[in-house]
Design goal:
The structure is a homodimer of 402-residue chains. Chain A has 402 residues and is an alpha/beta fold. The longest helix of chain A has 26 residues. Chain A is 42% helix and 15% strand. Chain A folds into 2 domains: 139 residues, Aspartate Aminotransferase, domain 1 (Alpha-Beta Complex), CATH 3.90.1150; 217 residues, Aspartate Aminotransferase, domain 2 (3-Layer(aba) Sandwich), CATH 3.40.640. In chain A, strands 2-9-8-7-6-3-4-5 form an 8-stranded mixed sheet, sandwiched between helices. The first copy, chain A, has a 4-stranded antiparallel sheet with strand order 10-11-14-13. Chains A and B meet through helix 1, helix 2, helix 3, helix 5 and helix 6 of A and helix 1, helix 2, helix 3, helix 5 and helix 6 of B.
């Protein structure tokens, strides 16, 4: 069969797709390779997946509830799972959302993307932490937002800097990951949280609070969520991909009912609803009391790996390199001298059998080239020491050559 | 806990969300109710869900492949399912797509939404059949497309009308459902298909071919797909929600590799990937040869219901009402006198215990108010006669009162 010469479709693509990075895909691709020790992707360890309970629950649902579990779901989610999420938020955050304040999403990035779709007009300013989750930068840019990075320190985002930006120009939303942030591993202090919601309330800026790593904590205490402090001004987005498992796409958003209604409309013409099968599985899992024991096991595993990585960094990294000491989550964040080019370093590291994500794509302004992210979540214990040794050797050579 | 007065978020919503209908949600809500016989939602019958095979496959995957089935998937989909889709298209359409020509999506509406996101700038013209799937109209409008309806006749869309539109103004894409169309149940003739792709190729217009109902056919013969006729100019979108089951959100798109690459980028910042668990289930289901027997059983069920509905229409509908006689799919489409207001009729029908979707939302120009859609897919056999009797009585009274 002969096919006509290919039509050049690129000129027909929407302007919002110009400059789309595809860096997420490139990073996930970095995770594959023989004899490669990968600290690249922020993936949960399959060891944490609750296979035994899932065997029981899948059988139970298929035998007793296939008519709901295999059917379409209402766009805001199945009533039972929304109730279970509301109960869980009540227990953990001290506030129970109304039904109209909660939507079940297809993962956290779906929630952020729906907010972008519902809120962002071309050129609207969205403030983000610098650095931040690169998928969120792409999600806002995907709707042609003007994404501005606000610097961070050890206590979180620079609220005075945000206040100045909001005074100078209208800001539609502030996106933040207050707990065990991606990529830095840092957690926002309680004082900073109060200051942040106060500034956003004053300027009428929607706070998008991404709590993807909030439950993955290595210590008992945790500061209040932004949503619990200011449900009038905060929409919280979360995911069960790192606590339950990612193979069913599930997450939630909870926020002002007007905002959530708008997300429901946006979801109707994206994927229409999250999968009912995963929703029913998660509801049964939560109701069965399985989540807390899984979290304890997962957090023990990830805390151990974090310690291994911090010890290895201490041993192998030369002077001139600093890093964060996370109390939860999946990541530590390294900073080298200003002249260091971690994108170039990443290519040489791959040749030496170790992968990481360079700092640049985590910055809205594409700076931060002297930084890099290491994920400790998926590397086997044995590999952490060897991987950091390889990286340390490479960094030492690079610094000495200068 | 005192909460500050609610902030008025509505002024902050994106312009693309203005006038969003929420009609899909309203229609799904119409499907519920006591003593209500619903011909509203286009839902598959749970009787067709392959519970026994799923019991076996879920156990097999959880015991043997949890590390893949419960993990994140690459954005374009798991390699095994993409191969299985490619094999299936090869067998059914006579052409095997290259790897770069195929993406796994979270249902059909996700595929259409990704195309809208990748292709549509504000004000771009997208042509659709009039009437057409209202979710697609919303998906294109969700990116501020100028959606134009092209009339249909019994052979499909008016290609000469499309040609005139394309000559008068640049058209980004033409969206069509050639097989057992939603809402009309009509199928495009083979001659019309050749003419359509020829016109679109000449004008450089991307054809979006929605094959959601293509496999749900009551007869042996079927015309070639548009994609098989013109893979250079057609992107086909499909779903397994009506053939496998909807509780895992799965579909596909196959088209020019440049277009599919752009969809992959768009998907990275919507839901990132379809759920791996559903992908692995479907791959095993296809490889195990279970799809064809399920389709035969489902199509026998739906053909029987279609016949019941056509017989009941014949018996109960007064003169002045005409309807289509589908050879597949879920729907028949009724047309009354020009003055008939089916939106108003729908409210009275609910009071009389029968639900349907009025014609208006299926039309880009919001005309077609004298038409209505009946779904025969989910109504129990016994209910079809009674539901059409109720509707027929109401319509007769309405026509006589005039």
């Amino acid at each position: 069969m002969s096919t006509p010469a290919p039509h050049a479709w690129a000129p027909a693509f929407a302007r919002r797709t110009e400059g789309a990075s595809g860096e997420l895909a490139a990073i996930l691709a970095l995770s594959a390779g023989t004899d490669l020790i990968s600290f690249a992707g922020g993936l949960p360890d399959p060891e944490t997946f609750p296979v035994t309970v899932l065997l029981e629950l899948t059988r139970k649902l298929l035998e007793g509830d296939a008519g709901t579990a295999l059917q379409y779901s209402p766009t805001p989610g199945l009533p039972g799972l929304r109730e279970a999420f509301a109960d869980r938020l009540h227990a953990s955050e001290g506030r129970r959302p109304e039904v109209a304040e909660l939507i079940v999403t297809s993962g956290n990035i779906d929630a952020v993307g729906l907010l972008a779709k519902a809120m962002v007009d071309v050129g609207d300013v969205v403030a983000v932490e610098s650095p931040t989750y690169l998928g969120a930068i792409d999600a806002f840019r995907g709707f042609q937002a003007d994404v501005r990075g606000i610097p961070m320190d050890g206590d979180g985002v620079d609220v005075e800097g945000l206040d100045r930006l909001c005074s100078a120009t209208p800001v539609k939303a502030l996106y933040t990951i207050p707990d065990h942030q991606n990529p830095t591993g840092l957690t926002m202090s309680e004082e900073r949280r109060h200051a942040l919601v106060e500034v956003c309330r004053r300027h009428g800026v929607l706070v998008i609070e991404d709590v993807a790593y909030r439950e993955l904590t290595f210590t008992a205490e945790r500061p209040p969520s932004l949503w619990s402090l200011a449900p009038d001004v905060v929409t919280q987005t979360g995911t069960t991909s790192k606590t339950f498992f990612p193979g069913v796409r599930l997450g939630w958003a909870v926020g002002p009912s007007a905002v959530v209604s708008q997300m429901v409309i946006a979801k109707q013409n994206s994927d229409q609803c999250a999968g009912a099968f995963g929703q029913r599985l998660l509801e049964e899992y939560l109701r069965g009391g399985h989540m807390e024991p899984q979290l304890r096991r997962s957090n023990a595993l990830y805390a151990g790996r974090c310690n291994l990585m911090l010890a290895a960094l201490e041993e192998y990294m030369p002077e001139g390199i600093s890093w964060t000491r996370p109390h939860g989550g999946f990541f530590t964040w390294l900073t080298g001298p200003e002249w260091l080019d971690t994108t170039e370093l990443a290519h040489r590291a791959r040749a030496d059998g170790v992968a990481f994500v360079p700092g640049r794509p985590f910055h809205a302004a594409h700076d931060g080239c002297n930084r890099l992210r290491l994920a400790f979540s998926l590397a086997r214990d044995d590999d952490i020491d060897e991987g950091v040794r390889r990286l340390g050797t490479l960094v030492r050579t690079t610094l000495e050559r200068r």
